[in-house]
Amino acid sequence: MSASARPVAPAASVTSGGRSMRVELTVNGAPVVAEVEPRTLLVHFLREVLGLTGTHIGCDTSNCGACTVHLDGKPVKSCTVLAVQVSGRQVRTVEGLEIGGKLSPVQEAFVEAHGLQCGFCTPGMMMTATELLSRNPNPSEPEVRDAIRGNLCRCTGYVNIVKAIQLAGAKIRSAAPSSGGKA
Amino acid sequence: MIPPEFEYYAPHSVDEAVSLLRRFDGEAKVLAGGHSLIPLMKLRLAQPRALVDINRIPNLAYIREEGGHLKIGAITRTGELLDSPLLRKSYPILTDAAQEIADPLVRNLGTVGGNVCHGDPGNDLPACMLALGAEVVAEGPKGPRTLAVSDFYRDTFVTALEPTEIVVEVRIPKVRPHQGNAYHKIEKRAGDFAMAGAAANLILDGSGRVESAGVALTGVGPTAILARPVAGALVGQAPDPSRLAHAAGLAESVAEPSTDLRGPIEYKRAMASVLTRRVLERALARAKGGG
Prior knowledge:
The structure holds 2 protein chains of 2 kinds. Chain A is an alpha+beta fold.
């Protein structure tokens, strides 16, 4: 970013009358450079420009949390963030959870504890759970339920989602018994 | 839903931001956390020509006691209120409110300045700030000015802020001995706006009587409402349970709710008093060193 107020870039390659801007960010560890309209929402940028369709669009009104991604490590609802806002920042999506082609402890636990029914809310649930466990690898049930207040499961499969998150915590703790665990 | 087109600016200083707002002469909006503004733009309820993103301006996020005030920078995320040991110990009303604002994901972006100055009667911090006797510090073309929150809310989404001004700080009188405060709301669904909410701030004198009181309501009128008659019924009095109940009962007459999906008028009125009694009891317990 330059040190001064920056008007939108002159009309470049983009569509019908919309003026575009250059954004540079990191997505799942890889640098991304793109031209976007200022009104492009982060969730649309991830899904339609980068093809990362694991991040779902549910309510589109920042209620449901299906679009949850990490922005500089914190879970946020990407339907209510503009792509231009995240230029220069780090974004992590559900596609970025697996480590070296292997499912993360949270992903494994959602499989093993059947932490999903239709699966629509699952990416957002796992993003929120991953961040929770990075701060608190041994959350109580109320702590888990509080953390996922912003992620709605319309199948109402919360019992197994909570179990899955606690199981993931156990996996993380057993993998790093002395350090307190890092997801 | 995709918002209508707008120009986007990300200034690096408050002065630059103010000059951008001047340039667009009322047709630009400040983008802070965006969790009220972006949904309104998607719904075409707001169609600004330009957004001035203040997230890249340094030194606008802080929580600190300085001089006679607790000062909170405008871009402080509401989730950061919850993480502050200072607030938990000395200004627990803000911890209460932060716990009840939307959900943790929203709180990672939504800001204190935005919550306070957006003017939505369903936001939780305005009632807290009214109860605490807070002030808003705004920067504009004529320099900074300080506005009392009690004179800030004019109507739904209408405040005393000029379109060319930016809120940079919220200031709360520094906590005193024998002071206690609390906030609580009821919601229909997890993370929803309040059906009704109440904020109370009490300071006791050496004999245990109420020296000063601030009480305010969320979600039961066109703006957050300062419930002056409730506070008036407490000041100078011994805060025994019947006195608190009597004062809280006056909240019903201060509330101006309308019937909507969150409940009928009668219910919201009744809840204004019920919640006022609960937060007064909690504030009193905290003023006495408990709760």
